[in-house]
Amino acid sequence: MRVSLLGLVLVCAGALPAQDFSKDNLAPYLPSPQLVVEHMLDAARIKPGEMVYDLGSGDGRVVITAAQKYKANAVGIEISDILCKSTIKKVNSLGLGSQVTIVHDSALKVDLSPADVVTIYLLTSSNERLRPNLEKYLKPSARVVSLNFGVPGWKATRFETVHADRQTHTIYVYEMSSRYPDGKKKP
C-alpha cells in the first residue's frame, strides 16, 4: 500500500484521524472531493426513498449528500470509532437522523440486502475481498458505484471521469442485473 508524504504529514499533524490497520480495515481514510461525491451519486441514478450504503463512509459526506440531494435513506459503514462519532454528530446537527444511520463495523461483516445502491472508495484488493458479500447480499436491481478502483472480475456497465482538486477520478458503475442475466440471483 502506498502512503503519500502529504497523507503521512496530515495524519501526523492531526488533520486526519489515525488509521486503523486491522485486517478488517479495507483502505486508508481519504475524503472524496464533494464534486466527485455528487458525480458518484448522479451516476448511481438514485431515486427518492432508495437505500444507499456507503462502505467506508469516513466523514459521512456520501450519505449526507444522498439524504439531502436525493431524498434517499442512507447507511454509512465505518470502522473508525472516531469518524463514526463525529459523523453521527454532524448528521444529527443537520436534522438527518431519520434518514441517515452510521454503523461502526467492518464493511466485510455487514448485511447489504436492504441496499439499492452501494458506494465504495476502496483499494482494488479490498474490492476483491468485498465482492463475495456484494454478490451474496445485493438484489438484481442494485447498483454499485466505485471510485477510482474497479471490482476485479466484474465488468462496469458504464464509467465516467471527473476532474476535481487537480486530479482525474474514475467512477465505475456496476448494475447487479448484468450479473444476473435472467434477473434472478442464484441460491
Descriptive report:
The protein has one domain: Vaccinia Virus protein VP39 (Rossmann fold, 3-Layer(aba) Sandwich). 33% of the residues lie in helices and 22% in strands. It has six helices and seven strands; from the N terminus they run ααβαβαββαβββα. The chain has a seven-stranded mixed beta sheet with strand order 3-2-1-4-5-7-6. A hairpin with a 2-residue loop joins strand 6 and strand 7. Helix 2 packs across helix 3. The longest helix is centred in the last third of the chain and has 14 residues. The chain starts with a helix and ends in an 8-residue tail after the last helix.
Q: Strand-and-helix sequence, N→C?
A: HHEHEHEEHEEEH
> What low-confidence regions span 5 or more consecutive residues with pLDDT below 50?
1-21
* Lateral arrangement of strands in the main beta sheet: 3-2-1-4-5-7-6
Beginning-to-end CA distance, first to last residue: 35 Å
List the domain count as a whole number: 1
Write down the overall mean pLDDT. Answer: 86
How would you name the CATH homologous superfamily? Vaccinia Virus protein VP39
Number of continuous helical runs: 6
Number of strands: 7
